[in-house]
Amino acid sequence: MRIEAAQLRKMLAVRRATDLAFRIAAVATLVVALGSLAVLLVDTWMDGAGTLSWAFLTSFPSRKPEFAGILSPLVGTVYLILLTAVFAFPIGVGAAVYLEEYAAKGWFSRIIEVNIANLAGVPSIIYGLLGLELFVRLLALERSLLAGALTMALLVMPIIIISAREALRTVPRSIREASCALGASQWETIWHQVLPLAFPGILTGSILAFSRAIGEAAPLITIGALTYIAFLPDGFLAPFTALPIQIFNWISRPQKAFHANAAAAILVLLIVLLLMNALAVYLRQRYQKRLQL
Amino acid sequence: MLQRVKKGRATERIVQSALFLCGVLSIFTTLGIVAVLLFETVAFFREVSLLEFLTDTQWTPLFEDKHFGILPLISGTLLTASVAILVAMPVGLVSAIYLSEYASNAVRRVIKPLLEILAGIPTVVYGYFALLFVTPLLQSMIPSLSGFNALAPGIVMGIMIIPMVSSLSEDAMYAVPQSLREAAYALGSSKLQVALRVVVPAAVSGIAASLLLAVSRAVGETMILAIAAGQQPRLTLNPLVPIETMTAYIVQVSLGDTPTGTIEYRTIFAVGMMLFLSTLMLNLVSQWLRERFRTA
């Protein structure tokens, strides 16, 4: 087939036009996606910023929206996440160390691996059903802070294991070999050499996992965490509430004033998340510098 | 000296067993989930026949006249998940092609973390956005839209899962060997032709894996739907009316004071079992596809 010069020029022009059209469409798509994020943030800010005040942070929830605050849910969330971390962090890191440093590459470690990947994909509300039967009923912990934290710990554990394994994998093999060559046992090598090097990376991944747990409401609602609590939890077995539950409760009410409260509580939740993510990014940057030595 | 060596060996053994237990705990978690769901589901099916559960077209366990047909909850779940994937698929794939084939490294470094923020926003926040911003906005365009509906939470859920589609698809496209692209360019292909006819087909199993994972996430998503989709189990494909998803039903029962051991209480485990099995299947197929593109 012969192509005339004019025809070729036309074909080239069409190609350039379609390429440009795709570029424009792609950028437009990204603008829409990120634009909706911006709209979400601006909308919440406009609805909630007026309600945000020191009194809002230090008052208990109330039946009257203008007096209502988020003291008990905020404190509940802080307790809940700290307690979750106490359970999930050591066990999750321990599991990661076992899988990376000890487990022989056989069918058994393969099963654990596939299993962890699947657990990470189980909907959070299913963990709520597990917590309801196992912790609330079988272990008779009732709707307590402890039952909530244990449920959350199971929920974040797979994410912690996966990210901790990635951090362990970045430690060069030569460091382990050097340590063993100097007569250190395997655990001494891990404890004194590998873990300190991997620690910032492990911490970064874990902080991100806990910041996901902070926003979870579904498992806590399923285990029966209360939606209205006007006192602070005084122990592990005390009933509790958390920020996302309080937000859900306020959204579900018909009055507009409660919706403003919900928006303000969302702003607090997002600020907490922002701070945690900033901390994770800061740790990651320090970590990268250190490995370059 | 010998004692120290012996003590060291003992420590070593204890530590290794402790770490082993940490690793095995994940298996017990899975077993626990399966056992809990199975135990209550078996008790549920002693009172309700499997046939009624799968074929009855009404779901009214909390009413006087009880029907236990899960189809309305499944249709609600599929409807919202379909809306979500209809939003996330085009946006996610176009973003992935753009980031993998067109964008410079500098642009990629800025856009990717920004997109990831979408996946990090708590779902109650998306629920708020769906109920109090997107629904009123859509109502001004579609007057027949109910205050609770499948459309708004579906769209918002789609926005939430965009990063899941875009980042996994981009990884798959990025992994396509450069030599394939160069061969296509040498034959005179344009950039778009290379992207659509070489890179996308080569990465198709990875792209499919990302879509399945996104569907699984949408099926399991709870708070957006509990807030904005309603609590009316209804066998319909109309996205404009209130419906109820499997997850939203579990939340609805959990918020009430349903005594343990009753049939109402057991319904949430039967529904949970259905939910667990569907997401498990989606995740397994997605994993299988991902392994395939890794080894290919």
Give the arrangement of secondary structure elements.
The complex is a heterodimer of chains A (about 290) and B (about 300).
Chain A: H1 5-48, H2 54-58, H3 71-102, H4 107-119, H5 124-138, H6 145-169, H7 173-181, H8 186-214, H9 218-222, H10 243-251, H11 256-291
Chain B: H1 2-47, H2 50-55, H3 71-102, H4 105-120, H5 123-141, H6 151-174, H7 178-186, H8 191-202, H9 204-220, H10 223-228, H11 246-255, H12 263-295
Helix pairs in contact in B: 1-12, 3-6, 3-9, 4-6, 5-6, 6-9, 7-8, 9-12, 11-12
Plain-language structure description:
- The complex is a heterodimer of chains A (293) and B (296).
- Chain A is mainly α and 293 residues long.
- Chain A is built from 11 helices and no strands.
- Chain A has 2 domains: 5-48; 55-291, Orthogonal Bundle (MetI-like fold), CATH 1.10.3720.
- Chain B folds into 2 domains: 2-47; 71-295, Orthogonal Bundle (MetI-like fold), CATH 1.10.3720.10.
- In chain B, α5 crosses α6 (151-174) and α9 (204-220) packs antiparallel against α12.
- The radius of gyration of chain B is 24 Å and the shape is flat.
- Chain B starts with a helix and ends with a helix.
- The relative contact order of chain B is 0.14.
- The mean pLDDT of chain B is 91.
- The interface between A and B is large, with 85 and 81 residues.
**Could you name the CATH homologous superfamily of the largest domain in chain A?**
MetI-like
Distance between the termini of chain A: 61 Å
Average pLDDT figure of chain A:
88
* Count of DSSP strands of chain A: 0
Level-2 CATH architecture of the largest domain in chain A: Orthogonal Bundle
* CATH topology-level name of the largest domain in chain B: MetI-like fold
What structural class do you assign from the helix and strand content of chain B? mainly alpha
Q: Number of DSSP strands of chain B?
A: 0
**Largest two-chain interface:** A-B, 85 and 81 residues
Given as residue ranges, the uncertain stretches of chain A (5+ residues, pLDDT < 50) are none
**What is the helix content of chain B?**
over 70%
The tally of domains of chain A stands at 2
Largest sheet of chain A, in brief, is: none
What is the overall shape of chain B? flat
- What share of residues are in beta strands of chain A? under 5%
Beginning-to-end CA distance, first to last residue of chain B: 54 Å
| Overall number of structural domains of chain B | 2
The name of the CATH architecture of the largest domain in chain B is Orthogonal Bundle
